[in-house]
Design goal:
Layout: H1 9-28, H2 37-64, E1 71-73, H3 76-91, H4 99-129, H5 137-158, H6 160-163, E2 164-167, E3 172-175, H7 182-196, H8 198-201, H9 206-223, H10 226-240, H11 246-268, H12 274-282, H13 286-297, H14 331-359, H15 363-380, H16 392-403, E4 406-408, H17 414-426
Antiparallel strand pairs: 1-4, 2-3
Helix pairs in contact: 1-2, 1-5, 2-4, 3-14, 4-16, 5-7, 5-9, 7-9, 7-10, 7-15, 10-11, 10-15, 14-15, 15-16
Length: 430
Protein backbone atom coordinates (compact mmCIF):
# COMPACT_ATOMS: atom_id res chain seq x y z
CA UNK A 1 0.00 0.00 0.00
CA UNK A 2 1.50 3.33 -1.08
CA UNK A 3 0.59 6.96 -1.81
CA UNK A 4 0.87 8.81 -5.10
CA UNK A 5 3.61 11.49 -4.87
CA UNK A 6 1.78 13.79 -7.29
CA UNK A 7 -1.10 14.14 -4.82
CA UNK A 8 1.20 14.95 -1.90
CA UNK A 9 3.68 17.38 -3.47
CA UNK A 10 3.27 20.18 -0.87
CA UNK A 11 4.02 17.71 1.93
CA UNK A 12 6.97 16.13 0.11
CA UNK A 13 8.45 19.50 -0.82
CA UNK A 14 8.22 20.59 2.79
CA UNK A 15 9.91 17.40 4.00
CA UNK A 16 12.69 17.82 1.42
CA UNK A 17 13.23 21.44 2.50
CA UNK A 18 13.47 20.49 6.17
CA UNK A 19 15.80 17.56 5.44
CA UNK A 20 18.13 19.89 3.55
CA UNK A 21 18.07 22.56 6.27
CA UNK A 22 18.72 19.99 9.02
CA UNK A 23 21.63 18.42 7.15
CA UNK A 24 23.11 21.81 6.25
CA UNK A 25 22.91 22.98 9.87
CA UNK A 26 24.32 19.72 11.22
CA UNK A 27 27.38 19.84 8.97
CA UNK A 28 27.77 23.58 9.62
CA UNK A 29 27.99 22.87 13.36
CA UNK A 30 31.24 20.97 12.81
CA UNK A 31 33.02 24.14 11.64
CA UNK A 32 34.80 26.60 13.92
CA UNK A 33 33.04 29.78 12.84
CA UNK A 34 34.53 31.95 15.59
CA UNK A 35 37.86 32.15 17.38
CA UNK A 36 35.87 32.82 20.55
CA UNK A 37 35.80 29.46 22.34
CA UNK A 38 32.45 30.17 24.03
CA UNK A 39 30.74 30.88 20.71
CA UNK A 40 32.31 27.77 19.19
CA UNK A 41 31.13 25.57 22.04
CA UNK A 42 27.64 27.05 21.86
CA UNK A 43 27.45 26.24 18.14
CA UNK A 44 28.89 22.76 18.48
CA UNK A 45 26.89 21.67 21.52
CA UNK A 46 23.69 23.70 21.60
CA UNK A 47 23.48 23.88 17.80
CA UNK A 48 23.91 20.13 17.30
CA UNK A 49 21.41 19.34 20.04
CA UNK A 50 18.90 21.65 18.36
CA UNK A 51 19.41 19.98 14.99
CA UNK A 52 19.12 16.55 16.60
CA UNK A 53 15.76 17.51 18.14
CA UNK A 54 14.76 18.90 14.74
CA UNK A 55 15.42 15.52 13.09
CA UNK A 56 13.28 13.75 15.70
CA UNK A 57 10.52 16.32 15.21
CA UNK A 58 10.57 15.88 11.42
CA UNK A 59 10.37 12.10 11.76
CA UNK A 60 7.38 12.40 14.10
CA UNK A 61 5.78 14.88 11.73
CA UNK A 62 6.07 12.41 8.85
CA UNK A 63 4.52 9.74 11.06
CA UNK A 64 1.72 12.13 12.06
CA UNK A 65 0.91 12.58 8.38
CA UNK A 66 -0.37 9.02 8.49
CA UNK A 67 2.79 7.20 7.45
CA UNK A 68 3.36 3.94 9.39
CA UNK A 69 6.77 3.46 10.94
CA UNK A 70 6.92 0.08 9.26
CA UNK A 71 10.53 -0.91 8.86
CA UNK A 72 12.60 -3.82 10.04
CA UNK A 73 16.30 -4.12 10.61
CA UNK A 74 18.53 -5.01 7.68
CA UNK A 75 22.27 -5.69 7.76
CA UNK A 76 21.92 -5.52 11.52
CA UNK A 77 25.51 -6.61 12.21
CA UNK A 78 26.82 -3.33 10.77
CA UNK A 79 24.84 -1.31 13.32
CA UNK A 80 25.43 -3.90 16.08
CA UNK A 81 29.22 -3.66 15.81
CA UNK A 82 29.06 0.14 15.66
CA UNK A 83 26.99 0.17 18.86
CA UNK A 84 29.50 -2.27 20.41
CA UNK A 85 32.28 0.18 19.48
CA UNK A 86 30.37 3.01 21.22
CA UNK A 87 29.72 0.85 24.29
CA UNK A 88 33.42 0.01 24.54
CA UNK A 89 34.17 3.72 24.23
CA UNK A 90 31.75 4.41 27.08
CA UNK A 91 33.31 1.67 29.20
CA UNK A 92 36.75 3.20 28.54
CA UNK A 93 35.80 6.13 30.78
CA UNK A 94 36.87 3.79 33.61
CA UNK A 95 40.49 3.82 32.42
CA UNK A 96 40.66 6.96 30.27
CA UNK A 97 43.61 9.24 30.89
CA UNK A 98 41.23 12.23 30.58
CA UNK A 99 37.58 11.37 31.20
CA UNK A 100 36.41 14.89 30.30
CA UNK A 101 37.86 14.72 26.78
CA UNK A 102 36.72 11.12 26.26
CA UNK A 103 33.21 11.93 27.48
CA UNK A 104 32.80 14.97 25.25
CA UNK A 105 34.03 13.15 22.14
CA UNK A 106 31.84 10.13 22.88
CA UNK A 107 28.77 12.31 23.43
CA UNK A 108 29.26 14.15 20.12
CA UNK A 109 29.75 10.88 18.23
CA UNK A 110 26.55 9.45 19.75
CA UNK A 111 24.76 12.70 18.97
CA UNK A 112 25.47 12.48 15.25
CA UNK A 113 24.67 8.74 15.37
CA UNK A 114 21.13 9.42 16.64
CA UNK A 115 20.70 12.26 14.14
CA UNK A 116 21.73 9.95 11.29
CA UNK A 117 19.21 7.35 12.48
CA UNK A 118 16.20 9.68 12.37
CA UNK A 119 17.39 11.42 9.20
CA UNK A 120 17.72 8.20 7.20
CA UNK A 121 14.62 6.66 8.81
CA UNK A 122 12.60 9.63 7.54
CA UNK A 123 13.94 9.16 4.00
CA UNK A 124 13.25 5.41 4.24
CA UNK A 125 9.59 6.05 5.07
CA UNK A 126 9.29 8.44 2.13
CA UNK A 127 10.92 5.84 -0.14
CA UNK A 128 8.51 3.16 1.00
CA UNK A 129 5.22 5.03 0.84
CA UNK A 130 5.84 7.56 -1.95
CA UNK A 131 7.45 5.52 -4.76
CA UNK A 132 8.77 7.75 -7.51
CA UNK A 133 9.29 10.79 -5.25
CA UNK A 134 12.15 13.21 -5.93
CA UNK A 135 13.86 13.33 -2.51
CA UNK A 136 17.36 11.91 -2.97
CA UNK A 137 20.08 11.58 -0.34
CA UNK A 138 22.80 12.35 -2.89
CA UNK A 139 21.11 15.66 -3.80
CA UNK A 140 20.64 16.62 -0.15
CA UNK A 141 24.30 15.88 0.60
CA UNK A 142 25.61 17.35 -2.65
CA UNK A 143 23.74 20.64 -2.26
CA UNK A 144 24.74 20.86 1.40
CA UNK A 145 28.40 20.55 0.43
CA UNK A 146 28.05 23.00 -2.44
CA UNK A 147 26.57 25.84 -0.38
CA UNK A 148 29.17 25.39 2.37
CA UNK A 149 31.98 25.31 -0.20
CA UNK A 150 30.49 28.40 -1.86
CA UNK A 151 30.86 30.28 1.45
CA UNK A 152 34.58 29.48 1.42
CA UNK A 153 35.02 30.39 -2.25
CA UNK A 154 33.38 33.78 -1.65
CA UNK A 155 35.32 34.17 1.59
CA UNK A 156 38.69 33.46 -0.03
CA UNK A 157 38.20 36.61 -2.11
CA UNK A 158 36.22 38.76 0.34
CA UNK A 159 38.17 37.94 3.52
CA UNK A 160 41.38 36.02 2.68
CA UNK A 161 42.85 36.58 6.15
CA UNK A 162 39.95 34.59 7.62
CA UNK A 163 39.50 31.89 5.01
CA UNK A 164 43.14 31.08 4.23
CA UNK A 165 45.57 29.18 6.43
CA UNK A 166 49.28 29.86 6.02
CA UNK A 167 51.54 26.81 6.20
CA UNK A 168 55.24 26.04 5.74
CA UNK A 169 56.35 29.23 7.46
CA UNK A 170 53.87 31.39 5.55
CA UNK A 171 55.03 30.20 2.12
CA UNK A 172 51.79 28.42 1.24
CA UNK A 173 48.18 29.61 1.70
CA UNK A 174 45.52 26.90 1.90
CA UNK A 175 41.78 27.39 1.90
CA UNK A 176 40.24 26.66 5.29
CA UNK A 177 41.65 29.22 7.68
CA UNK A 178 40.96 28.62 11.37
CA UNK A 179 37.42 27.61 10.39
CA UNK A 180 38.31 24.15 9.05
CA UNK A 181 41.39 22.04 8.50
CA UNK A 182 42.19 22.25 4.73
CA UNK A 183 42.36 18.46 4.41
CA UNK A 184 38.95 18.10 6.06
CA UNK A 185 37.55 20.79 3.75
CA UNK A 186 39.02 18.91 0.79
CA UNK A 187 37.31 15.74 1.97
CA UNK A 188 34.01 17.64 2.14
CA UNK A 189 34.55 18.73 -1.47
CA UNK A 190 35.16 15.11 -2.43
CA UNK A 191 31.84 14.05 -0.90
CA UNK A 192 30.14 16.83 -2.89
CA UNK A 193 31.66 15.52 -6.12
CA UNK A 194 30.59 11.95 -5.27
CA UNK A 195 26.97 13.05 -4.71
CA UNK A 196 26.38 15.71 -7.37
CA UNK A 197 27.79 13.55 -10.14
CA UNK A 198 24.64 11.42 -9.82
CA UNK A 199 22.62 14.25 -11.37
CA UNK A 200 24.27 13.35 -14.69
CA UNK A 201 22.91 9.81 -14.41
CA UNK A 202 19.37 11.20 -14.38
CA UNK A 203 19.95 14.26 -16.64
CA UNK A 204 18.87 16.48 -13.73
CA UNK A 205 19.80 20.19 -14.08
CA UNK A 206 23.00 19.22 -15.85
CA UNK A 207 24.28 22.74 -16.60
CA UNK A 208 23.77 23.88 -13.01
CA UNK A 209 25.36 20.67 -11.72
CA UNK A 210 28.40 21.27 -13.95
CA UNK A 211 28.75 24.79 -12.49
CA UNK A 212 28.47 23.41 -8.96
CA UNK A 213 31.18 20.82 -9.65
CA UNK A 214 33.52 23.42 -11.18
CA UNK A 215 33.20 25.60 -8.07
CA UNK A 216 33.80 22.61 -5.81
CA UNK A 217 36.90 21.56 -7.79
CA UNK A 218 38.19 25.13 -7.62
CA UNK A 219 37.84 25.06 -3.84
CA UNK A 220 39.45 21.61 -3.71
CA UNK A 221 42.47 22.94 -5.60
CA UNK A 222 42.65 25.90 -3.19
CA UNK A 223 42.78 23.60 -0.16
CA UNK A 224 46.02 22.07 -1.47
CA UNK A 225 44.88 18.72 -0.07
CA UNK A 226 46.79 15.92 -1.75
CA UNK A 227 44.66 13.10 -0.37
CA UNK A 228 41.39 14.85 -1.29
CA UNK A 229 42.57 15.44 -4.86
CA UNK A 230 43.39 11.75 -5.20
CA UNK A 231 39.97 10.92 -3.78
CA UNK A 232 38.16 13.19 -6.24
CA UNK A 233 40.03 11.71 -9.21
CA UNK A 234 39.21 8.20 -8.00
CA UNK A 235 35.52 9.13 -7.71
CA UNK A 236 35.42 10.37 -11.30
CA UNK A 237 37.30 7.30 -12.54
CA UNK A 238 34.92 5.05 -10.58
CA UNK A 239 31.84 6.62 -12.16
CA UNK A 240 33.34 6.71 -15.63
CA UNK A 241 33.94 2.98 -15.46
CA UNK A 242 30.22 2.46 -14.73
CA UNK A 243 29.22 4.15 -17.99
CA UNK A 244 27.93 2.07 -20.89
CA UNK A 245 28.78 4.78 -23.45
CA UNK A 246 32.22 3.93 -24.79
CA UNK A 247 32.78 7.25 -26.57
CA UNK A 248 31.92 9.32 -23.48
CA UNK A 249 34.00 7.01 -21.32
CA UNK A 250 36.95 7.38 -23.69
CA UNK A 251 36.71 11.18 -23.85
CA UNK A 252 36.58 11.51 -20.05
CA UNK A 253 39.48 9.11 -19.59
CA UNK A 254 41.56 11.11 -22.09
CA UNK A 255 40.65 14.30 -20.22
CA UNK A 256 41.70 12.72 -16.92
CA UNK A 257 44.99 11.61 -18.46
CA UNK A 258 45.68 15.22 -19.49
CA UNK A 259 44.54 16.85 -16.22
CA UNK A 260 45.89 14.36 -13.68
CA UNK A 261 49.65 14.92 -14.29
CA UNK A 262 49.20 18.71 -13.98
CA UNK A 263 47.08 18.34 -10.84
CA UNK A 264 49.53 15.91 -9.25
CA UNK A 265 52.51 18.12 -10.15
CA UNK A 266 50.86 21.25 -8.73
CA UNK A 267 49.08 19.86 -5.65
CA UNK A 268 50.84 16.63 -4.68
CA UNK A 269 54.44 17.34 -5.72
CA UNK A 270 54.18 21.15 -5.29
CA UNK A 271 56.00 21.98 -8.57
CA UNK A 272 58.75 19.50 -7.84
CA UNK A 273 60.07 21.26 -4.71
CA UNK A 274 62.58 18.79 -3.25
CA UNK A 275 61.59 19.58 0.34
CA UNK A 276 57.95 18.88 -0.54
CA UNK A 277 58.96 15.60 -2.19
CA UNK A 278 60.47 14.55 1.12
CA UNK A 279 57.15 15.44 2.78
CA UNK A 280 55.29 13.17 0.38
CA UNK A 281 57.66 10.27 1.04
CA UNK A 282 57.16 10.57 4.80
CA UNK A 283 53.47 11.58 4.45
CA UNK A 284 54.28 14.94 6.10
CA UNK A 285 56.01 13.25 9.02
CA UNK A 286 53.16 10.83 9.67
CA UNK A 287 55.10 7.63 8.96
CA UNK A 288 57.75 8.27 11.66
CA UNK A 289 54.97 9.28 14.06
CA UNK A 290 53.00 6.07 13.41
CA UNK A 291 56.17 4.03 13.82
CA UNK A 292 56.82 5.63 17.20
CA UNK A 293 53.20 5.07 18.28
CA UNK A 294 53.44 1.35 17.52
CA UNK A 295 56.91 0.88 19.00
CA UNK A 296 56.58 3.08 22.10
CA UNK A 297 52.92 3.92 22.75
CA UNK A 298 51.03 0.73 21.96
CA UNK A 299 53.03 -1.60 24.25
CA UNK A 300 51.93 0.50 27.25
CA UNK A 301 48.19 -0.23 26.74
CA UNK A 302 47.85 -2.83 23.99
CA UNK A 303 44.55 -4.47 24.89
CA UNK A 304 42.11 -1.64 25.75
CA UNK A 305 44.09 1.50 24.94
CA UNK A 306 44.28 4.83 26.74
CA UNK A 307 40.56 5.64 26.61
CA UNK A 308 38.19 7.00 23.99
CA UNK A 309 40.10 9.50 21.78
CA UNK A 310 43.21 9.35 23.97
CA UNK A 311 46.60 8.26 22.60
CA UNK A 312 48.86 8.61 25.63
CA UNK A 313 48.85 9.19 29.38
CA UNK A 314 49.54 12.87 28.68
CA UNK A 315 47.73 15.28 26.35
CA UNK A 316 50.32 14.78 23.61
CA UNK A 317 52.33 11.79 22.46
CA UNK A 318 55.89 12.64 21.50
CA UNK A 319 58.82 10.43 20.67
CA UNK A 320 62.41 11.56 20.54
CA UNK A 321 62.35 11.82 16.74
CA UNK A 322 58.75 12.95 16.09
CA UNK A 323 56.56 15.99 16.51
CA UNK A 324 54.13 16.10 19.48
CA UNK A 325 50.70 14.84 18.45
CA UNK A 326 47.29 14.94 20.11
CA UNK A 327 45.76 12.65 17.47
CA UNK A 328 47.26 10.02 15.22
CA UNK A 329 46.27 11.36 11.75
CA UNK A 330 44.99 7.88 10.92
CA UNK A 331 41.57 6.73 12.09
CA UNK A 332 42.55 3.07 12.43
CA UNK A 333 45.70 3.92 14.36
CA UNK A 334 43.50 6.20 16.50
CA UNK A 335 41.23 3.27 17.40
CA UNK A 336 44.24 1.08 18.15
CA UNK A 337 45.67 3.64 20.55
CA UNK A 338 42.45 4.68 22.32
CA UNK A 339 40.65 1.29 22.48
CA UNK A 340 43.48 -1.16 21.83
CA UNK A 341 43.27 -4.39 19.87
CA UNK A 342 39.79 -5.05 21.24
CA UNK A 343 38.49 -1.82 19.71
CA UNK A 344 40.32 -2.39 16.42
CA UNK A 345 38.74 -5.85 16.12
CA UNK A 346 35.25 -4.36 16.58
CA UNK A 347 35.97 -1.71 13.97
CA UNK A 348 37.29 -4.29 11.51
CA UNK A 349 34.14 -6.39 11.67
CA UNK A 350 31.92 -3.29 11.64
CA UNK A 351 33.46 -2.14 8.36
CA UNK A 352 33.37 -5.68 6.95
CA UNK A 353 29.61 -6.00 7.50
CA UNK A 354 29.04 -2.45 6.26
CA UNK A 355 30.80 -3.19 2.99
CA UNK A 356 28.87 -6.43 2.64
CA UNK A 357 25.61 -4.50 3.06
CA UNK A 358 26.65 -1.87 0.52
CA UNK A 359 27.65 -4.44 -2.10
CA UNK A 360 24.30 -6.20 -1.71
CA UNK A 361 22.28 -2.98 -2.23
CA UNK A 362 20.55 -2.02 -5.49
CA UNK A 363 22.90 -0.55 -8.11
CA UNK A 364 22.18 3.17 -7.64
CA UNK A 365 22.42 3.03 -3.86
CA UNK A 366 25.57 0.90 -4.07
CA UNK A 367 27.27 3.35 -6.42
CA UNK A 368 26.23 6.32 -4.27
CA UNK A 369 27.47 4.81 -1.00
CA UNK A 370 30.78 3.64 -2.49
CA UNK A 371 31.26 7.11 -3.98
CA UNK A 372 30.70 8.73 -0.58
CA UNK A 373 33.05 6.25 1.09
CA UNK A 374 35.98 6.93 -1.26
CA UNK A 375 36.85 10.43 0.03
CA UNK A 376 36.08 9.72 3.69
CA UNK A 377 38.13 6.49 3.73
CA UNK A 378 41.08 8.23 2.05
CA UNK A 379 40.74 11.06 4.58
CA UNK A 380 40.67 8.43 7.34
CA UNK A 381 44.18 7.34 6.38
CA UNK A 382 45.68 10.80 6.97
CA UNK A 383 43.33 12.78 9.25
CA UNK A 384 40.56 12.36 11.86
CA UNK A 385 38.54 9.89 9.82
CA UNK A 386 35.44 7.85 10.50
CA UNK A 387 36.56 6.64 13.94
CA UNK A 388 38.55 9.66 15.05
CA UNK A 389 37.72 12.86 16.87
CA UNK A 390 34.26 14.25 16.13
CA UNK A 391 34.00 15.50 12.54
CA UNK A 392 31.56 15.42 9.67
CA UNK A 393 33.33 12.43 8.16
CA UNK A 394 31.91 10.42 11.07
CA UNK A 395 28.44 11.82 10.33
CA UNK A 396 28.70 10.83 6.66
CA UNK A 397 29.81 7.32 7.61
CA UNK A 398 26.89 6.99 10.02
CA UNK A 399 24.52 8.06 7.24
CA UNK A 400 26.05 5.30 5.09
CA UNK A 401 25.54 2.73 7.85
CA UNK A 402 21.86 3.56 8.32
CA UNK A 403 21.29 3.73 4.56
CA UNK A 404 21.74 -0.06 4.46
CA UNK A 405 20.08 -0.80 7.81
CA UNK A 406 16.35 -0.49 7.08
CA UNK A 407 14.04 -2.69 5.06
CA UNK A 408 10.33 -2.32 4.42
CA UNK A 409 8.17 -4.55 6.59
CA UNK A 410 6.00 -6.81 4.48
CA UNK A 411 2.82 -6.57 6.54
CA UNK A 412 1.16 -3.62 8.30
CA UNK A 413 -0.79 -3.74 11.53
CA UNK A 414 -4.51 -2.97 11.47
CA UNK A 415 -4.01 0.50 12.97
CA UNK A 416 -1.27 1.28 10.41
CA UNK A 417 -3.57 0.23 7.56
CA UNK A 418 -6.38 2.41 8.92
CA UNK A 419 -4.07 5.44 9.24
CA UNK A 420 -2.74 5.01 5.71
CA UNK A 421 -6.24 4.53 4.29
CA UNK A 422 -7.35 7.71 6.06
CA UNK A 423 -4.50 9.63 4.46
CA UNK A 424 -5.47 8.24 1.05
CA UNK A 425 -9.08 9.36 1.62
CA UNK A 426 -7.93 12.87 2.58
CA UNK A 427 -5.96 13.05 -0.67
CA UNK A 428 -9.05 12.00 -2.62
CA UNK A 429 -7.82 8.53 -3.58
CA UNK A 430 -10.57 5.94 -3.93
Amino acid sequence: MSLQPALHQPFLQQVEKYLFILLLLMVTCFFTWSENILITRAIKLIGRNGVLLGSIYLYRRVRAYGIPGSAKGHNVLSVTFYVAYLLLGFASFLWSTNVGVSGLQWFMTCQSFVFAYFFIKTIQLIDQYFPGHKIKLYQLLGNTVFYLILIFVIGMWAAPDVFYRLTHGGEEARLGGYIMNPNELGMLAGVGVACLIFNFYHAHRMVWTAIQLLIIFYALYATGSRSSLIGALLIIFFHVMQSDHRQIKGLILVGMMLITPVAVWKVVLKDGDSSRLEEVMSMTGRLPFWTALINEGLPREPLLGFGFMRIDYKEYFQSTHTYPGKMTHNTFMQVLMNLGFVGLTLVFFQMLFTMRGILSAVKEKKLMLIGILIPIIINSLTEFGIFGESNYGILFYQLVIFSISFQAREFLTTSEKIGLARRQAVAGIK
